Amino acid sequence: MVKKKRVRFIAELARKIRAYRELKSRPSESQRYALDYETMKRPFSGKTLPVLAWQDVRRESRLFSILSGMRMFGVGRLFTRKSWLEDHSEPSYWKITKVKVDYTAENMDHGKAWGILTYKGQPESEVKEVDKVMYHDWRLIPKHMEQQFKDFEPLPDPPVRYVPFPPLLRAMILAQQSKAGGSAAVEEPSLPLQRDVLLSKDYFRQQEQEMKREDGTAV
What InterPro entries would the database entry show (predicted)? Predict the structure, then answer.
């Protein structure tokens, strides 16, 4: 007969109390991401920001620094980042759908946000949490430019012209290339899906001669 496990109510209650105290003593995001703009250090962790980020930190804003001064905390508006504008010609932006503000912060400029991401003109269908909200390169897209970002039509993907060889045939081709080339870098073999045929007068003459050989001459 299996012995029934004894439930220790006091130990279970003590475990829940320890977990609750640990959760309450956990530092908030406003404490973790607080920044001393003179020394460029985070007081909580003592880490110094990279030197390349100092210019953006002084000139640009974090996402919640912008949301805290907007009506409904910017729900429904579009936000982009400076790095996206510089690196991509296609529009990349977040459409904010939900905001959870950390009211313990002094200026309510910390928290979490959710939205729909459109990256390089390709919108996603699911709502997810906005990442890198503490980066100092967020920008609000003006309302008169929102339609311009939304109306962008991405270019169709180019057709596939080459496919990899089957594994066994690929191994044979690579072995032959390595023997012929020695220690030189071996190129990855690929199989073209379309064969370019140069049609010339000689090509049609050869075709006529082959047809005559097969059919024979009329008697």
Answer: Ribosomal_mS34
